[in-house]
């Protein structure tokens, strides 16, 4: 049996991350802005960035790598 080698596509992986992170950032921006109307932008970012980073490291990237592997791999020549 001849198996075709597959390797992850960086472009597809980046696109998948974008598709998950963009909605997360958008929801957090609106949510944090509604809860903190008097805060400066840097203060809101100080709350939002750790949430985004932790979500990416522990949820989004493992989900993409484990569950969506077929979408991010391409055939090797």
- Derived from helix and strand composition plus strand pairing, the structural class reads mainly alpha
Shape: rod-shaped
The radius of gyration is 17 Å
The ordered H/E elements are EHHHE
What is the average per-residue confidence, as pLDDT, rounded to a whole number?
Answer: 92
Residue ranges: pLDDT <50 for 5 or more in a row?
A: none
* Total number of beta strands: 2
The DSSP helix count reads: 3
**Multimerization state:** single chain
Largest sheet: 2 strands, antiparallel
Helix content: over 70%
Q: Which terms would index this structure?
A:
single chain, about 80 residues, mainly alpha, two-stranded antiparallel ribbon
Give a written overview of the molecule.
- This protein has 77 residues and is mostly helical.
- It has 3 helices and 2 strands; from the N terminus they run βαααβ.
- A two-stranded antiparallel ribbon has the order 1-2.
- α1 (10-35) packs antiparallel against α2.
- The radius of gyration is 17 Å and the shape is rod-shaped.
- The model has no long low-confidence stretch (mean pLDDT 92).
Characterize this entry briefly:
This protein has 77 residues and is mainly α. It has helices spanning 10-35, 41-67, 69-72, and strands at residues 6-8, 73-75.
């Amino acid at each position: 049996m001849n198996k075709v080698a597959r390797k992850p596509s960086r472009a597809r992986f980046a696109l998948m991350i974008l598709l998950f992170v963009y909605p997360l950032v958008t929801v957090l921006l609106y949510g944090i802005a509604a809860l903190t109307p008097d805060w400066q932008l840097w203060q809101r970012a100080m709350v939002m960035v750790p949430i985004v980073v932790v979500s990416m490291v522990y949820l989004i990237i493992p989900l993409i790598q484990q569950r969506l592997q077929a979408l991010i791999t391409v055939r090797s020549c």
